[in-house]
Amino acid sequence: MFFKQKIFAIIAASALLVLIAVLVKRRKLREELALLWLITGIGIMALVIGYPLLEMVSKLIGAVVPTTTLFLFAFLFLILISISFSVRFSRISDQMQSVITEISFLRKELEDLKNQKQAGPG
Amino acid sequence: MIDDALIIIPAFNEGSVIGETMAELHKFASKVIVVNDGSKDDTAQKAGKAGASVLSHAANLGYGAALKTGFTYALRYFKEPYLMAFDADGQHDPAFLKSLLEPVRAGEADYAIGSRFLSGPSQATPAARKIGSRVFSIATSALIGQKITDPTSGMIALTRNVAKIFASKFFPFDFPDADVLIMLSRMGYRIREAPVVMREARRPGSMHAGLVRPAYYIMKMGVSMVHFALRRDLKEQRREMESVF
C-alpha cells in the first residue's frame, strides 16, 4: 500500500470515528446504531495500521492487491449496515402499524362516546 | 339478510363510490365496518352517513393493513361468529355474500374465497390480471394440494379463529392473497371456493395499475409464497395465535 493511500485511509477512518462520537454525544445517533459504524471505522483503521494483517487477509481471500481487501471489507460492512437498517425498518413498520391501528380504535371510541353524550341519557 | 357476520371494507379515496356500494350492501348485510385507510377525500364521512361503523387510519398503510385493523377491531369489540371482506369500489356483487358465507356457516370450511372463475366466463377482469391470477392459481394449487381458481380475490368469509391469524404479525401489509392461502392451508385450516360475480369497478384505477406496482407485487408475492411454503412451525403458530383475544 502506498504511503499516500495509507494516510488517506487513516484520515477517513479517524474522521468517521470522530463523527460517530460527536453524533452519539449530541444524542443524534443512538448507541446501538453507532455500534455498527464504530466497528466499520475500527475495522478500516486496524487493516490500514496493521499492514501485515491486511496482507494476510488478502492472501487468505485471494486478493492480489491489499487495497482490494480494504474495499471489499468496506463493501461488506455497508451491506451489513443496509441489512441492519432493513431489519430495523421492518420492526418500525410493524410498530407504526400497531400505533395507527390503536389510534383508529381510540378515535372511534371517542366519537362513540361523544355521540352518546350528545344523544343524552335514555 | 346476513346478521351473524361483520362485513369489513378497506377503503382508500373511495368517497365517490362508497355511498353507492354501502347502499347496495345494506340490502344483504346489516353490520358493516369501513376502514378508511388514510384517504384524502371524504370516504369516512360518506361511509358514516351510509350507516357503516368507520375506523380511520391516520396515514395510508395499505390494503392488508386496513383489513388487519378491521379484523382486529371486530375481534375486540364484536361477538359475531363470522367475518367477511368486501371491496369498496363496487367490484364485488353483494348478492353472492350469502352463498360465500354458507360453507363457513355450515362448518365445512374455515375460510371461503369468492372465485370469479367458477361463475362463468363473462367476468370483468383485465387480461393482465387474468394471466397473473392464473399463474398464482397454478402455483397455489400445487403448493396446497387443492384446486384454487382465484387466489387474488378479495371477497372472503372466515371464522373468528382465522381472523385471529389475520390480526397477527403474519398478515401482510399490502396485498394479502395467494400467500395467505398457503399460510392458512399449512396451518391446517379448511379452504373452500364459492362462485361470485365480479363487476367493473365503479371508480377507474386499480392498485395493480402501472408497471412498478405489478412487478413489485409479483416479486413480493413470490417471496412470501416460498416463505410460507417452507415454514414448518405454522401449526404451532396457529395454536399460539388462536389463544389470543
Please give a handful of descriptors for the protein shown.
heterodimer; A: 122 residues; mainly alpha; 4 helices; 88% helix; B: 245 residues; Spore Coat Polysaccharide Biosynthesis Protein SpsA, Chain A; seven-stranded mixed sheet; 9 helices; 42% helix; 14% strand; globular
Explain what the structure shows.
The complex is a heterodimer of chains A (122) and B (245). With 122 residues, chain A is an all-alpha fold. Chain A has helices at 3-25, 31-49, 51-61, 66-119. Chain A has one domain. By secondary structure, chain B is of the alpha/beta class. Helices cover 42% and strands 14% of the residues of chain B. Chain B contains nine helices and seven strands, in the order E-H-E-H-E-H-E-H-E-H-E-H-H-E-H-H. The longest helix of chain B has 19 residues, at 212-230. The radius of gyration of chain B is 17 Å and the shape is globular. The A-B interface holds A 93-94, 97, 100-101, 103-105, 107-108 and B 35, 53-59, 61, 65, 68-69, 72-73, 76, 169, 173.
Structure in a nutshell:
By secondary structure, chain A is mainly α. Chain A is built from four helices and no strands.
- Helix % of chain A is over 70%
Query: How many domains make up the coordinates of chain B?
Result: 1
Count of DSSP-assigned helices of chain B:
9
Our measurement of the CA-to-CA distance between the termini of chain A, rounded to an integer number of angstroms, reads 87 Å
Q: Assign an overall shape of chain A.
A: elongated
The main β sheet of chain B shows up as: 7 strands, mixed
Strand content of chain B: 5-15%
**Structural class estimated from helices and strands of chain B:** alpha/beta
CATH fold description of chain B: Spore Coat Polysaccharide Biosynthesis Protein SpsA, Chain A
Derived from helix and strand composition plus strand pairing, the structural class of chain A reads mainly alpha
Q: Which percent range fits the helix content of chain B?
A: 40-55%
Number of helices of chain A: 4
Low confidence ranges of chain B: none
Shape of chain B: globular
Order of strands, widest sheet of chain B = 3-2-1-4-6-5-7
